[in-house]
Amino acid sequence: MTDYGEEQRNELEALESIYPDSFTVLSENPPSFTITVTSEAGENDESVQTTLKFIYPGNYPDEAPLYELLSQESLEDRDVTDILKLLQEQAEENLGMVMIFTLVSAVQEKLNEIVDQIKTRREEEKKQQEKEAEEAEKQTFHGTPVTIETFLSWKAKFDAELLEIKRKKMKEEEQSGKNKLTGKQLFERDHNLDTSDIQFLEDAGNSVEVDESLFQEMDDLELEDEEDDPDYNPVHLDSD
């Protein structure tokens, strides 16, 4: 008859010696404990970690242990799902044998794979970012390729904008023409214009200066006497 308790105690002692810094006993009845598993460091010292909790059922190892992930560091949801699936597969394959070391070792390998996947994902993300930056740069220098559809769309928009500018200009010119007054309209609007010259003279008073040099003395003017005119005929005057 199998002594399950003896097998469980022996495995616990072995696990404590194998994982001295990460093995923690939670309870003795039922036996439960945790083991923290950390991946190997990647090229950039990245790593992932998880803490596994195990509980022995009464007839372990003929029955699979209960397990769960208490915590995980730098793991995505799909990684957690993959680890749980892996534990289930390993537990089914190792029924009848103490298996905790086997389960932890499988999880350790899985975490190392995840680190490699993280590296691959980061490289792919970097390539994608570089590709997007390159495409954006090409777009900046070369612009959008012109097709018949894009040209017609641009031309329709351009013509509409040009027509709107012309309409505004015509409206402004029309408005400017309406606001410009004729001389008659100015005269009718301001009745002071008809007396502005007189008012100017009155305001000037005696201060208006006349340049007398512009006028000649009457004696200096050479006026011909009618009798000295050879064509002068007084008869014609009498007949008038």
Give a quick summary of the entry.
This protein is of the alpha+beta class. It is 54% helix and 12% strand.
Provide structural commentary:
The chain is α+β, with helices and mostly antiparallel strands and 240 residues long. The protein has a domain at 4-119: Ubiquitin Conjugating Enzyme. It is 54% helix and 12% strand. It has helices spanning 4-18, 77-93, 100-142, 148-179, 183-189, 196-204, 234-239, and strands at residues 23-28, 31-38, 49-55, 66-73. It has a four-stranded antiparallel sheet with strand order 1-2-3-4. Strand 1 (23-28) and strand 2 (31-38) form a beta hairpin. Helix 2 (77-93) runs antiparallel to helix 3. The model has no long low-confidence stretch (mean pLDDT 80).
Q: Strand order within the widest sheet?
A: 1-2-3-4
CATH superfamily of the domain at 4-119: Ubiquitin Conjugating Enzyme
- Low-confidence parts: none
The number of distinct helices, counting runs of at least 4 residues, comes to 7
Q: Which fold does the CATH topology of the domain at 4-119 refer to?
A: Ubiquitin Conjugating Enzyme
Specify Rg, calculated over alpha carbons. 57 Å
Reported CATH architecture of the domain at 4-119: Roll
- How helix-rich are the residues, as a percent range? 40-55%
SSE run: HEEEEHHHHHH
Highest-level CATH class of the domain at 4-119? Alpha Beta
Structural category is alpha+beta
Distance between the termini: 179 Å
The profile of the biggest β sheet is: 4 strands, antiparallel
Number of strands: 4
Shape: rod-shaped
Mean pLDDT across all amino acids: 80
**What percentage of the residues does DSSP assign to strands (E)?**
5-15%
Protein name: RWD domain-containing protein 1
Family: Belongs to the RWDD1/GIR2 family.
InterPro entries: GIR2-like, RWD_dom, UBQ-conjugating_enzyme/RWD
Organism: Anolis carolinensis (Green anole)
